[in-house]
Amino acid sequence: MNSYLAQPDEHQLARQIQCLLDEGFVPAIEYVRQPDPHDHYWAMWKLPLFEARAVEDVLTEIQACETAHPDCFIKLIGYDRQRQTQAVNLVVHQPQQDST
Fold this sequence. Notes:
- By secondary structure, the protein is α+β, with helices and mostly antiparallel strands.
- The chain has one domain (10-93): Ribulose bisphosphate carboxylase, small subunit (Ribulose 1,5 Bisphosphate Carboxylase/Oxygenase), CATH 3.30.190.
- The chain has helices at 10-22, 55-68; strands at residues 26-32, 43-45, 73-80, 85-93.
- The chain is globular, with a radius of gyration of 13 Å.
């Protein structure tokens, strides 16, 4: 999976998470080893973070997922409770690519 956007640094990611929380979205983390454009379902890391109120809560779970699955793509999702759908969806971790 190639991206034209640079991987967000910790500060940029924290700002995105704060915006997600400020909007009242429920954060959730998903991961997959090999993304496929036709596969819309990734494995969910634990349950959605219904009780998350601080950026650190979400960052801690993202880092735990990275530690458990370093070879996977990881994305952060923000669920909109009113519309009952995903409102935010961004890749927060990409595995290291071989240069061969």
